[in-house]
Amino acid sequence: MKKIAILLIILFASCETPSSGVSEADANTFEKNVQTIKDSWIKGYQEENAEKVLSFMADSIQWTSAAGDVSGKESLSAAVQYWIDNFENFSFTEGEGLEGTDVGYWGGNTYPVEQAMSGPNNVRMYGTWRATNSKTGKTGAIKSYVVLNFNADGQVHTATEYGDYGSMMSTFDE
Asked: What is the CATH number of the domain that holds 121?
């Protein structure tokens, strides 16, 4: 009986809770980056404040638009101003369109296993943007997927956007 008790103690003592593989520092960095997106990009559009939208973008940013064009901060700034000049009542619904979850921000990857990483500075943002055309009053929506890469200073140095902008463009039709 004593041997069984000792074996059980050894068995329980040797069992560890599986680790998520993500350090506390990485988790904190990821959460900080997500909060920066919410406080700058999303709130900036909601407040129709282009300066706020762009505030977390590095001067050297390489931005790839949904059309596939790669450009810098000047073009990104012009695009942001276009949306603010032509639309109002911006909203972003995080995770909308993802089956089985309403989480809209993801970082790192699990697969392929050989390349798994925590990647707190690589943030993927999924969701739906909605806005009202300022001239026609029509509302449109964009199912959006954006990959944002943060640098050590907490600024985005590369961004790649994917989305179907047809609904938004159709709001110009009278």
From this structure: 3.10.450.50
